[in-house]
Write a structure and sequence with these properties.
Family: Belongs to the transposase 11 family.
Organism: Neomoorella stamsii
Helix content: 25-40%
Order of helices and strands: HHHHHHEEEEHEHEEEEEHHHHHH
Strand content: 15-25%
Domain Transposase IS4-like: 93-305
Shape: flat
GO molecular function: DNA binding; transposase activity
Protein name: Transposase DDE domain protein
Length: 386
Amino acid sequence: MGVDKYVKKLNTLQLVELITFAQLEQLDGLRDISNSLHDPKFNRAINLESISFSQISRRLRDLSPQFIRLLFSYLTTKVGQEIGLVNLRNAVGRIYLIDSTTISLCLTQYRWAEFRQTKGGVKLHLRLRFYEEEVLPDKAVITPARPADKTQMDVLVVEEKDALNVFDRGYVDYKKFDRYCEEGIRFASRLKGNAIVKVIADLPVNSESKVKKDQMVYLGKDGVTKMKHPLRLITTEDTQGQPVVIVTNDLQLKAEELSEIYRNRWQIELFFKWIKQHLQVKHFYGKSEQAVENQLFIALITYCLMVILQLKAGYRGPLLTIKRLIRTCLYEPFTFFVQTLHLKHKRSSQGRRRIDHEGVYREIVRQVLAGEADYLNDVTYDPLVL
């Protein structure tokens, strides 16, 4: 793509490695990244002896986000190949979770990121692939925070017949829902509280399940927003016993299955929380729109690389363990990393031992009654240590 055409120092992959390293180490600024090259092991690893913080800033600002997006897309495909296409499918087909998260920015420094009158922000719109209780980034779009979530539906919704798109109330759009019904695009979403609902049929429900209602309905106001196609409305409960209203155009799956699938939508919220806590996505190394987009995509790339490490190492534990061990074994052979990852730690102690006070008391009473309690007059003897 010609991204290194006029680059004399710090090529694109070295830049990605630097920012990835900074995110894993959660370095605060560009000077910290530049100073990390004082470690001879690190500068040998990426074949770069030194670089100034201003050069890192310029490369991050000038690098085309198109290349980083392409690298991210390549890695998501690579992870899919490692997992296997069969393993990526669920019993109901392919499940995609769609949502966005807003990252606050200072409006005076990021004027392009308009959000509110005195506040800036950037929004990461994301599609995750859900499989075997795990999630995998699949598609990402980055915009200023102001545009509504549903403006990105055309980019994020998967239109294949075996795909089920799961999203929240921010994506409710009756016109798009009608098009999805016409073209056989499956979806499931929460319904807004002020929605106008006309019930046309009640479907049978299992009295022992959490599903309270299963109905066929029309949504919208007559002559204004009313949909052409009927939808299925399922009323269920969350873990706190609060009602949850789900609307879908899938008429084949059981209400309990759809209810459980929608509960799994929470996985995307956990993903956002994870990358905000463990990768550097709340503090940016550049001020321009391109620099911010590049850094967010590199964070997703870092996540994918850790998933690849996890798969190649055959490790089924939490990804956070991978992240922590990378920092420890960064310059060690991969075989050493795998051995350390699978090492079963032995307990060096049995923990705090609880004293059976009642049992000690009974033993002392027995000794007193048997005339064996002369030792009680000896102050050097501790009757509790037997």
